[in-house]
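pasting for ref
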Amino acid sequence: MGETALHRKVKELIINRLQLEGITPEDIDNGAPLFGDGLGLDSIDALELVIGIEKEFGVRIQDEEVGTKAFASVNALVDFLRSKGVPEAA
């Protein structure tokens, strides 16, 4: 899956909401895990991302199980947003 406008917007949201200094969208691998060994995010970061996704895209993360799947990677988050009707050029 190639880089799309939605991928870039998701990466920018992650960087801005979590104040990841020195990281650019190009530094984040679309398929890499966001938590643990990948980007190294934690549960506090997850809460901040849930709030960011709701504010930016108007999409609610219903529960922890949905969130766990949606936040697996940038690709997973983009797929989740698309499934909720977020347009590619959101």
